[in-house]
Amino acid sequence: MTRSEAAGWLREHDGYLLLTHTRPDGDTLGSAAALCSALRRAGKTAWLFPNPEVTEKFAPFLAPFWAEKGFVPNYVISVDIASPGLFPVGFEGKVDLAVDHHPSNTGFASCTLLDDKAAACGQIVLELVELLAGGPTKEEADLLYIAVSTDTGCFQYANVTEETFLAAAKLAHAGADTAGLSRLFFRTFSRARLALEGAVYSGLRTFHNGEIVANLVTLDMVKKAGVTENDMDDLAALAGKLEGHQVSVTIRENPNGTSRVSLRSGRRVNVSQIAQHFSGGGHAMAAGCTVKATPEEALAALLPLIERELEKN
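Now predict its structure.
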């Protein structure tokens, strides 16, 4: 679908439930909430599926949009979700429209609006909001600024384009609290988070002549630092600060015996292809997967694949 076709589809129907992905980040949450708000302004009934993994930092922005108990939708829209494996905990069913920017999207929805050139799903949703309602309100601008800024590392990642900055400018013009939101999401951390960062930096490992840097976040590290889920945002960015590396690997141990892997790279290695070996996916320079293994075992499985790609390029 094009953006115009998707906007037309949204105008034709009603009774929407919007999905955000598991371990939700600012892009899925901000984009879904902004689209939900714009649909309401267009006269539609729209709610967000209550995602039980939303952290305290995001919760206040989403409070007006959670679905009422017993709400039965006519149509389901997924936002920033690449595959059914990323559906939020507790959701079962089919998706009628997927709005996404991941090139690894599996085409699971009946209809798909996909732009894999967009740095954040928030850019796509901004254009939908413009088509549906003429432009964002101040509240929607805040939500979309959260989406775009968090998915680009506050406009530092290689996925940022001219269109990303143009979207941010539109949101600032619409009243987004750029300074306040940047302070909240990029410059304010708990003592526990800073303690965890110290443990992460002191435990970085390098491989392949320094071209690979790895960071393992174990349950023991989390316990010693005293962090909560609210302190765990964007851990994958930490390892990527080491000079000279080409690929960074962040592996977080889960209580159920699995490990969550986040991969980041420059243009030399397509980490989405590596993640797909473990039924994951994402973007060429930012991808992830879940491995049924300990962090050490997951790292041992990943290293040969990354080294092979480095040697080819």
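The first helix runs from residue 3 to 12.
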